Amino acid sequence: MGGQYKITGDKYPRMRPARRRGRVVVAAVASVTVLGVLGWGTLQLIDVFTGGDKASAAGAAGCATTARASASPAAAVLPKPGRVTVNVLNATTRSGLAQKTADELKKRGFRVGDVSNAPKEYDKKVAGAGVLLGPAASAKTSLTVLGTQLPGAEHRTDAARKGAAVDLIIGNGFKGLAKPADADAALARLTAPRPTPAEEKKSC
């Protein structure tokens, strides 16, 4: 046989170039595999960090919403009974009822003004337990506090009325003021502190 290699005896020459090509193929496959694994791991790390940023942004947005809510106006502060002057007027035919009611209100800490019969526009014309009457500014202050003493009374305001005193006009359905314990509990519920939106922000 002609060519570079000659066969002598029972030994054959080694094909070294073919073995080197096999090693190159194996090395190329290994390199591609390693690069693929590294690329996949990099993508996973990017997703982890990106997801954390999104969660932080969502939490910050929730806290910001709560902070804006804290700008709402505060509720009106109710006066204590000692700062409320009450005129007790009797619109019934039962004598002495106005004075008896005025004495009880005084024991409960209220200031007592006039004690007399109701004017003609209310005299014998109040069918319910009574009417609480005051200036417009007393609607959510003095009348609210006095209302704890006579829950069934009707609340009315007069825009033209001057001064801060309020009237308790006793009606035909009047059976007495609320029990002291019940009145105190009702007043405590009105004056109890309530959580504001700013305090709720602490849960973020």
From TrEMBL:
<keyword id="KW-1133">Transmembrane helix</keyword>
<keyword id="KW-0812">Transmembrane</keyword>
<dbReference type="InterPro" id="IPR027381">
    <property type="entry name" value="LytR/CpsA/Psr_C"/>
</dbReference>
<keyword id="KW-0472">Membrane</keyword>
<dbReference type="Pfam" id="PF13399">
    <property type="entry name" value="LytR_C"/>
</dbReference>
<feature type="domain" description="LytR/CpsA/Psr regulator C-terminal">
    <location>
        <begin position="83"/>
        <end position="174"/>
    </location>
</feature>
<protein>
    <submittedName>
        <fullName>LytR C-terminal domain-containing protein</fullName>
    </submittedName>
</protein>
<feature type="transmembrane region" description="Helical">
    <location>
        <begin position="24"/>
        <end position="43"/>
    </location>
</feature>
